[in-house]
Every structure is written in structure tokens, then in C-alpha cells.
Amino acid sequence: MYSFKICVVLLIMLHPVVQARYAWYGPGNGYAYFVIDINLSYGDAKLQCGYYGATLAVHAPKDRRIMKILEEHLTVLTEQDYWIGLNDIQREGRFVWEDGTLLTKSQENWYPTEPNNYGRGEDCVGGNHAGSLKWNDYRCSYGKLYALCERAL
Ligand SMILES: [Ca+2]
Ligand SMILES: [Ca+2]
């Protein structure tokens, strides 16, 4: 009975956290967001978002003002690295969003010295590099980032 009570207390304590992390949140730009908090490659992150009828986030990362609102509500975005829908897979140095639009200068939010296409090449982009809220290019197969998913409201 004692351990049952502990379980109930733990569930009540954990429930809002779990709910907050998995609830879709709309920062007011016409899209809703949530974070898949497991370590994924870029390809798997795309797939996982797809299971929820979503894509990797494009519209929020284009806009620092919206990202700030998201970071306040989905605090995991300030604690972990996560994939966004941006890559230069097709042509080195030419970063394209998953909606097919080109990355513009004013949208850029790179961590200093990034993107560096390090080593055998890095073509996929993640946010909050080194806890900075800024971007880094990673190897797309690097399976250590969460996924920021987006769907239209
Ligand atoms: Ca690259
Ligand atoms: Ca890099």
C-alpha cells in the first residue's frame, strides 16, 4: 500500500512534465510545435515528425522572435540540441529549408565558426549547439539530436 501511494504521488508529479513536453504548442505564427525527446539522426527525425503528420521545423527557426517564444514554452529547446528542417545535402554550402526555400542571410543563426562542414562533411542543421540557442551543421547520420517538429494549424 505504501509503495502504491508513492507511485500515485510520482505519477501526479510527473504527469504535467510529460504532458508539457509532448503537447503541441502554437507560438502564434500559424504552426504548432513539439519536441521528440529521443536521440535521432536527421533522417529518423524527419520520419518521426512524419508519424505525427508534421515535418522538421522550418517556420520557427526562420524567425528569432518566434523561436524565443518557443524556447520559453518548450524549455527542452534550451537544454538539448535538436534537428531543424535545414540542410545542404544537395549542394555543399547551399542551405535549403525542408519547405524548399533557400536560407537567407537575415534568417541565419549560426554558432561562431559554423557552419564548418567538419571532417567527412556536415550537411544537416541542429539548434542550441553547446547550449547557445544557435545552430551547428552536423553529420546527418549523427544520431544524438532531438527533433523539433512543426505542423500547420
Ligand atoms: Ca555541408
Ligand atoms: Ca559543424
Helix content: 25-40%
Rounded Rg: 17 Å
CATH topology: Mannose-Binding Protein A, Chain A
Bound molecules: calcium ion
The H/E string reads HEHEHEEEEE
Total strands: the figure is: 7
- Give the overall silhouette: globular
What's the overall average pLDDT, rounded? Answer: 90
User: What summary fits the major beta sheet?
Assistant: 7 strands, mixed
Number of domains: 1
Q: Would you identify the CATH H-level superfamily? A: Mannose-Binding Protein A, subunit A
Measured between the Cα atoms of the first and last residue, the distance is: 45 Å
Domain C-type lectin: 28-141
Protein name: Alpha-N-acetylgalactosamine-specific lectin-like
GO biological process, one term: immune response
InterPro entries: C-type_lectin-like, C-type_lectin-like/link_sf, C-type_lectin_CS, Ca-Dep_Lectins_ImmuneDev, CTDL_fold
Walk me through the structure.
By secondary structure, this protein is an alpha+beta fold. It has three helices and seven strands. The chain has one domain (24-152): Mannose-Binding Protein A, subunit A (Mannose-Binding Protein A, Chain A, Roll), CATH 3.10.100. Strands 1, 2, 3, 4, 5, 6 and 7 form a seven-stranded mixed sheet that branches. The longest helix is centred in the N-terminal third of the chain and has 21 residues, at 2-22. One calcium ion binds next to strand 6. InterPro entries: C-type_lectin-like, C-type_lectin-like/link_sf, C-type_lectin_CS, Ca-Dep_Lectins_ImmuneDev, CTDL_fold. Keywords: Disulfide bond, Signal. This is Alpha-N-acetylgalactosamine-specific lectin-like. One of its GO terms (molecular function) is pattern recognition receptor activity.
